[in-house]
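Bench log, entry 3. Co-assembly request; chain sequences pasted below exactly as received.
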Amino acid sequence: MTDTKAALLAAAHTVVGREGIAGTSARVVAAEAGVNQALVFYHFGTVTELVATACTEAADASVASYREELAAVGSFTELLAVGRTLHEREQASGNLAVMAQLMAGAQRDPLLAAAAQHAMEAWNREVEIAVRRVLADSPLLEITDRAGLARAIGAGFIGLELYEGVDAEGAQQALAALEQLGAVAEILDDLGPVARRAVRARLRRTSRST
Amino acid sequence: MTDTKAALLAAAHTVVGREGIAGTSARVVAAEAGVNQALVFYHFGTVTELVATACTEAADASVASYREELAAVGSFTELLAVGRTLHEREQASGNLAVMAQLMAGAQRDPLLAAAAQHAMEAWNREVEIAVRRVLADSPLLEITDRAGLARAIGAGFIGLELYEGVDAEGAQQALAALEQLGAVAEILDDLGPVARRAVRARLRRTSRST
DNA sequence: GTCTATAGAGGGATAGAC
DNA sequence: GTCTATCCCTCTATAGAC
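Structure output for the full assembly:
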C-alpha cells in the first residue's frame, strides 16, 4: 500500500468521525491527508468507496485488537468491565462515532450499507463468543438467544454514541444504568441453590408460554 | 400556520426519513411539498432551521400520542408490549428514522443538536414515568436509576433503527432478545417470598459494594 | 503517481417582479 | 406570499500535462 493510499484512508476515518458523513467530501479528506484532491479518485474511484474501505479496515483492526480479551471473558462482571473499557477506547479513538455515521449514511447508500453490515457482523461474532461463555452456567441460558443479545449490545453502543453527541450527561447516565442491570444477571448466577431453582423453574415456565 | 409552511414541514420530515440528512436540500424538500424552492428561505430562513422545526414538531406530536398509554403501564410485560407497538408504529411512520438521522446530523450542527436533545428529553420524560411505575414494587427499585434506564431505552431504539437499515434480520433478532431479557425482570417480581428475599438481599449487598 | 485546470451538477441564499 | 432569475459556492469527476 502506498503512502498516499494509507494517508487517505486514515484521513477519511478522521473526517467521518469529526465532520460526520454529510461533511465528508473528497476535498476535505484530501486536505486532511495533505494530498491532492484528484488522488481520491485515482486511488479509490469514488468518495464513497474510500469511506467504505476506510471504515471496513478500521473496524476489522479494532475488532481484532479485542478478540483475545473478549474471548477470555468468563463472567458478567468481566463482560461489563471489558464492555466499559471497550466503549471508552472506541469512543476516544473515534471508531464509535465513525460507525454511527457510517450507519446513518448506510440508510440510503448500498455501498456504505455493505460496509456497515460487515463491521457490525465482525463485532457481533466476537461479542457472541463472550456472551456464550458468560451464559454457559446461567439460568438465562435456556431462554436467551445469544446471537440476538450480541446484536442488541452492538446496536445499543451505536445508539449511545449518537446520544452522547446530543446529551453527554444523559448518555453517561444511560450507560451506568445498563451496568447496574448487567449486575443483576451476575446476581442470578450467584444465588443459593433454592432461589436459583425457583428462578430457573420460573424462567422455564415463562419461556414455554411465550 | 399557512398551508405552505405546513406542507414544507411535512415534506422536510418525509425527505429526512427517506433520503437521510445528507440528502435533504431546499430543492428536494420544496419539490416534495410542491412549492417553490425560495419559500424555504422565506418561511424558515435556512434549511437547517426547517429541518429542526419539522423534527421537533413531529417528535412532540408523537410523544403526546403515547403519553396516556405509557403512563398507564403497570408491569414489565405491559411496558414491553407498549414498547413493541410503539417501536413498530414509530418505525412505520418514519419518526424513528428521522430521529436517527437527526442525531447523526446533530454531531456537527448545533441547531440539529438542540432539536435532537429536545426530542430525546420529551421521550425520556414519558418513558421514565412508565419505568417508575413498573419498578415501584420491584426489588430492582433500589439499585436502578430510573432516569438512566429511560435514556438507555431511548438510545437503544435509535441504535436499533440504524441497525435495521443495515441488517433487518439481525435487528429483529436483537429486539426479540431484549424482550426476553425484559421478561426476566418481570419474573424477579413474581418470585415466591423466599426467592424474592434472597434476590433482594443479594441486590442490596452488591449495590453497596459498587 | 501526482499535479493543474476545468467541466458540469447541485446546493444555499438573495433580489426584485408580481 | 409567491414566483423567476441569478450569484456564488462546493461538490464529483475527468482530461491532460508532468
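The longest helix of chain A spans residues 110-135. Chain A has a mean pLDDT of 92.
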